[in-house]
Amino acid sequence: MSDINYWEPGNLIDAVSLLANMGDQVRALAGGTDLLVKMKKGPINWKGIVNLKGLTELKGFVFEGETITIGALTQISSLIENSLLGLHFPVLVDAARSLGTPQVRNLATIGGNLCNASPAADVALVLLMYEARLLITGPSGSRKVPVHEFYVGSGQTVLQLGEILTAIEIDLPPLNSKGVFYKHGKRKSHEIALVNVAVLLTPQPGTKQISRARIAVGAVASTQLRIKEAEDSLREVIATLGAFEKAAELTKEAVNPIDDVRSTASYRKQMVGVLTRRALVEAWGGEL
Fold it and tell me: How many whole angstroms separate alpha carbon 272 and alpha carbon 28?
């Protein structure tokens, strides 16, 4: 690996300025769990690193009304340790626990998990299910992007030159909602997902009717997906095993996975149906 330059800005304005002025010649460093691996594999076609770790204003949690804001540099381990997050967004905590080893979780950040734009990312998938909003700051000011509009392809996002993801906003899910996250890999831990699924079901109070469903799947297309047709099939219907099986089948038919060294497309397609059905049944929890 050739010599590279290194910058450590002390504030967000300086970080944006550096990234904007240096363009494609530099990369932003958050936790480094993905970037440093890519550097070791090489070759790299850029000349420097802008280390964002000193931007303490991009770390931590703010609970205000019905919304939580999480700084983009907040470590994955901090998601697991936050009791209010565990109370209101337990599926996000489950996904955080599934990410790598304790050492990796102590370095990796929630913003890095999003900006790496891996179709198999665990935390990012749950943020898609929770309909998060992403706060972005750049040379032209700040903007807010729904997470489902953030990705343009595998490893590609809408971030423009000099822009930095600064925070993630999530609204509290509807009362009585229950979510489930499933990750399937060759090993039970320290594994990149072959398929992952996150669902959220909201029942009509006091009934067996589903008010709304959210279904998000990963590692089965070039970006993570919300399966709207499957979600719509569950809206305002009675919760039955047949209804969940239909939604799972619609999810299976909506995805377009690929063959790679870790799995075949046909296996991924089959497993996304299996996991969706299983997650929906578990999320409902009641008698079917």
Answer: 33
Distances (CA, A) of 89 to 60, 120, 164, 239, 282: 16, 20, 25, 23, 16
CA distance 115 to 88: 24
Q: Which are the contacts of 250, defined by CB distance < 8 A and separation ≥ 6?
A: 227, 229, 230, 233
CATH number of the domain at 1-44+60-170, out of 3.40.50.12780, 2.170.120.30, 3.30.465.10, 3.90.550.10?
Answer: 3.30.465.10
CB 235 within 8 A of CB 227: no
The pair of structure tokens assigned to 248 is 């799972």
DSSP letter at 149 equals G
The CATH number for 179-284, chosen from 3.30.390.50, 3.20.20.120, 3.30.70.20, 3.40.50.2300, is 3.30.390.50
> What band does 39 get if pLDDT is binned at 50, 70 and 90?
confident
* Contact in structure between 283 and 216 (CB atoms under 8 Å): no
Q: Where are the alpha helices (DSSP H) in 151-227?
A: none
Alpha-carbon distance of 197 to 217, in angstroms, equals 5
Report how far residue 120's alpha carbon sits from residue 255's, in angstroms, rounded to the nearest whole number: 13
Residues 184 and 190: their CA atoms lie apart, in Å, by 11
Burial of 96 (0-12, 13-18, 19+ CB in 10 A): buried
Q: Which of 167, 172, 173, 171 is nearest to 70 (CA)?
A: 167
pLDDT digits (tens, 9 = 90+) for 186-225: 765 567 889 999 999 999 998 999 999 999 999 999 999 9
